[in-house]
Each structure stands twice: as C-alpha cells, then as structure tokens.
C-alpha cells in the first residue's frame, strides 16, 4: 500500500486541473469588488474608548493628542498623520462607503463610515 | 506514542515555531496590507501531513500559533491565527487525503493560504466590523501568491529529501491513506 509520501514523489508536480482550479479561485477573489456599496454620510471615530461622530459633508481635520490625525475632505475620510510604526492606517487612504473602516491599533483608533444620518439617541447608524 | 515519535513531533514544532517567530518580526509582504506573510511555518504542518499524519500536523500548527502569539507579545493575534490556521489546515488535509493523485500540493497550499486569509477577514469583520471589500481585493491575491510559494517548498521538501528522513516504517509510516486521525 503506497502512502502519501510515495504518492507525491511519483506524481506530476502540476497539471491542467491545478491551473484551472487556481484560475477559478483567483476569480472568486474578485467577487468582493462587485458587491454594491452605499455612500457614507457620517463617520464615527473611536479613540481610546471615546466615540465622536462627524458629518462627511463638512471638511475638517481632527487631531487626537497630536499623535494621530483624521481628515474629512470632499465627502471622504482618511488618517492623514500618525505616529504609529507601520503607517498601515495612513496607507489605507480615503474611505467613503458605508461600513468601511480604518483602524490604527497602536493608537487605539477606529474610524467607521456610516450610511445613516446622525442619530441623536445612539450617536451613529449602520 | 514512543520517545522517537515525541522527539520528532518536538523537532517539527520547534522548526515551525522558529520560522513563525522570524516571520512575525519581518514586515508584511506588501507594506499596505497588514498581516499577510509568507507562511513558511505552515510548510511544516503541511509537510507533516505527508510524513506523520493529520494529528501530528495539527499539533505542530497549534503549538506554533499559541507560542508565537505568546512569545511575540501579541496574544490577540491568536484568535485570528489559530482559527484561520486550523480551518485552513483541515481543508488542506481533506484535499490531500481525498484528492492527492489529481491535485498538486501547490494547489492545495494555494487554497489553504486563500482559506486562511479569508477566514481572517471574516473574523475581523465579525469582531471589529472591518469591511471586507476594498481590503479583500488586495489581501486575497497576495496571500494566494504566498500559498503557491509554500506549496512549492513543501513539494520540493517531500520530493527531494531522502526517504529515510521522511518515514522510517517504525515510528511513522508516512501519512497513511487509511488513517483515522
């Protein structure tokens, strides 16, 4: 009875079926692109546990203790400056669709775009 | 379980752990996509499926995830890495067990890497509420390429290493086609 080691050593490394599978899976990866998106209206920023909500329609820059800055411009939001080591948050760029977020773990910051109007009771929507 | 088996398991775990620690210190593959790494440590677990069977590979993977997260000082990462690792591992095991002759290890590792990172995205979405779409488009292809690489490495290891290293018929019979975990 052959076992897996023998089987691998005696079979071809790559075949047509493999190429087909890889192509199909790669195409599946593109599916997320086609999900319909809602434009965001407000953004909630949670810094160190405290959340504040802003309208995306008003351009502004919000500075958190001088360590990290969030900029709203032209209906979109981004992290414009940060003192974190990897700057992944800055590299994310602008987001504007409902549900999109930017996270900076070292600074404990979560920026979340919402498609709802500011709700006076809960302070945020979606 | 005899002492040779324990020693072998320990050796595989140590190799995987060291690879995992080195990888965790290096920057991610693409600087703007966090947490996507080459996944060299997973080569060991995949390799173990061939040489020592499902249980050993699973053990190696679990040990690696737990210890890397503790030793690199990032325990939160454990939720992501262990869940994604186990799901990806068992998917890869099922593919190998049932489709080995027809599908290449390279493809198995490719699917495994895609599954691993897809799981991480799902967990991130559930816990933090990150949206999947714009990140996913970059994330998945990058991880898939990493999968092709680890698959190739695993293939070369199993194919080229001397058979006496891979199995010795006494303590490990290679991953048995009829094993029941």
How would you briefly describe this protein structure?
Chain A is α+β, with helices and mostly antiparallel strands and 126 residues long. Chain A has helices at 4-10, 16-29, 88-91; strands at 42-47, 50-55, 60-64, 68-73, 76-82, 101-104, 109-114.
Supply the number of helical segments of chain A: 3
pLDDT average of chain A, as an integer?
A: 81
Strand content of chain A: 25-35%
Report the order of strands and helices of chain A: HHEEEEEHEE
Low-confidence stretches of chain B: none
Strand content of chain B: under 5%
Query: Helical percent range of chain A?
Result: 10-25%
Summing up helix and strand content along with how strands pair, one would put the structural category of chain B as mainly alpha
- Nearest-integer average pLDDT of chain B: 82
The percent range for helix content of chain B is: over 70%
The span between the termini of chain A is 58 Å
Biggest interface, residues from each chain? A-B, 38 and 44 residues
Describe the largest sheet of chain A.
4 strands, antiparallel
The CATH class assignment of the largest domain in chain A is Mainly Beta
Along the chain, the helix and strand elements of chain B come as HHHHHHH
| CATH fold call of chain B | Arp2/3 complex 21 kDa subunit ARPC3
Uncertain segments of chain A of ≥5 residues (pLDDT<50)? none
What would you note in describing this structure?
The complex is a heterodimer of chains A (126) and B (181). Chain A is an alpha+beta fold and 126 residues long. Helix content of chain A is 20%, strand content 32%. Chain A folds into 2 domains: 4-34, no CATH class; 42-114, Sandwich (mini-chromosome maintenance (MCM) complex, domain 2). Chain A contains 3 helices and 7 strands, in the order H-H-E-E-E-E-E-H-E-E. Chain A has a 4-stranded antiparallel sheet with strand order 2-1-7-6, with no helix packed on it. Chain A is elongated. The N and C termini of chain A lie far apart (58 Å). The model of chain A has no long low-confidence stretch (mean pLDDT 81). With 181 residues, chain B is mostly helical. Chain B has one domain (3-166): Orthogonal Bundle (Arp2/3 complex 21 kDa subunit ARPC3), CATH 1.10.1760.20. Chain B is 72% helix and 0% strand. In chain B, helix 1 packs antiparallel against helix 2 (40-51). Chain B is globular and about 50 Å long. Classes of the chains: A alpha+beta (126), B mainly alpha (181). Chains A and B meet through helix 1 and helix 2 of A and helix 2, helix 5 and helix 6 of B.
């Amino acid at each position: 009875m052959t076992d897996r080691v023998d089987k691998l050593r005696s079979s071809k490394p790559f075949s047509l079926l493999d190429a087909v599978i890889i192509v199909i899976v790669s195409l599946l990866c593109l599916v997320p692109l086609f999900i319909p998106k809602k434009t965001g209206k407000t953004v909630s920023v949670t810094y160190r546990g405290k959340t504040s909500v802003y309208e995306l329609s008003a351009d502004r820059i919000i500075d958190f203790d001088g360590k990290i800055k969030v900029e709203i411009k032209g209906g979109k939001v981004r992290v414009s400056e940060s003192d974190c080591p990897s700057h992944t948050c800055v590299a994310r760029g602008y987001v504007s669709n409902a549900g999109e977020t930017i996270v900076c773990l070292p600074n404990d910051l979560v920026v979340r775009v919402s498609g709802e109007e500011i709700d006076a009771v809960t302070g945020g929507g979606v | 379980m005899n002492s040779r088996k324990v020693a072998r398991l320990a050796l595989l775990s140590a190799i995987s752990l060291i690879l995992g620690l080195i990888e965790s210190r290096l920057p991610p593959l693409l600087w703007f996509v966090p947490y996507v790494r080459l996944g060299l440590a997973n080569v060991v677990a995949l390799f173990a499926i061939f040489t020592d069977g499902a249980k050993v590979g699973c053990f190696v993977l679990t040990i690696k995830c737990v210890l890397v997260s503790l030793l690199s000082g990032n325990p939160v990462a454990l939720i992501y890495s262990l869940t994604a690792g186990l799901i990806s591992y068992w998917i890869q095991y099922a593919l190998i067990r049932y489709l080995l002759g027809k599908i290449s290890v390279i493809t198995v590792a490719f699917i495994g890497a895609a599954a691993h990172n897809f799981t991480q995205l799902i967990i991130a979405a559930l816990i933090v509420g990150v949206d999947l779409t714009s990140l996913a488009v970059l994330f998945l292809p990058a991880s898939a390429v990493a999968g092709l690489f680890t698959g190739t490495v695993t293939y070369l290891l199993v194919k080229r290493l001397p058979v006496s290293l891979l199995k010795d018929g006494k303590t490990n019979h290679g991953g048995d086609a009829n094993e029941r975990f």
